[in-house]
Write a structure and sequence with these properties.
Helix content: over 70%
CATH topology: Chromosomal Replication Initiator Protein Dnaa, Chain: A
Oligomer: single chain
Order of helices and strands: HHHHHH
Number of domains: 1
Shape: elongated
Length: 124
Amino acid sequence: MKEFKTKSLFLIKSINEVSGEDILKNKSRKRNVVEAKMVYIKKMRDFGYTYESIASELNMDHATAIYHFKNYNYILRSSNTLRLLDEKVTEYLMKNNCESIKDKISFLENEISCLKNLLNEYND
């Protein structure tokens, strides 16, 4: 549960920063707010979390989360704003090495390699 909360808060912060909308507080049905919430739902499902946990974080019914997830790819094809938001959030996440566990592992392996090199230089 702690991992979910950490990822969720980071993703919410990322989306809020990129979109300029606070997806937790904003209950508006305006397109930009709904699309920001759709990006959150899509990313969290890609991380493997349940509709119930995702929806409860946004204070919505799980059926709404299912609806947004199922229509995401369809809307992505026709909405330039959703496509641009998705790209910016993905770029933001990649820049911060939090897109996936594989990215974190490769980042940490690289850090270990650098530290080993520093240790070898220190010992020589």
